[in-house]
Amino acid sequence: MKKMVLRMSALFLMAILVLTMLVGCSGTKVGDDTATANDDYYSEDYGNYTITIKLIISNPDPTKDPLFSGTVTMKTIKHMAYEAVAAACAAKSIEIVGLNGYSSFITTLAGVGYVDNGNGTYSSWSTTINGEFSAGVGAQQLRDGDLFEITYVTQEITW
What we know:
Blueprint: H1 2-25, E1 33-38, E2 51-57, E3 68-75, H2 81-91, E4 96-97, E5 108-109, E6 112-113, E7 115-116, E8 121-129, E9 132-134, E10 147-156
Parallel strand pairs: 1-3, 2-10
Antiparallel strand pairs: 2-3, 4-5, 5-6, 7-8, 8-9, 8-10
């Protein structure tokens, strides 16, 4: 009887592990939006290459669809995150302020920016690459197949 319980427990744990792996490996689904980032100096003759990344720009209102959800084809020299964001915003006519190759932070996106909520929290735009926190968009280089996400988050003020 003890062996039977141990075997059943082992099978149950194995099933949970397999299901967890399947769910975890399913990846984040992106929509059908598309954009292309072009660099005037891009040339395959000089060794430049094209990559495609997945980009999701969430809506500040979590009850609404993302502002952009799809792929960005990057025909640029360095494949920088700000280039992908600029292309996506241009393709969907999304206003963006504070985006450039030097700044790591998006000041305002779709008219929404940093807010001190007055209760010890603030809200601002945050970025992740492949599920890991990213320091921003200014100096982040992307690779083919990366998932780049921009979300509007509320966090505790720690300063």
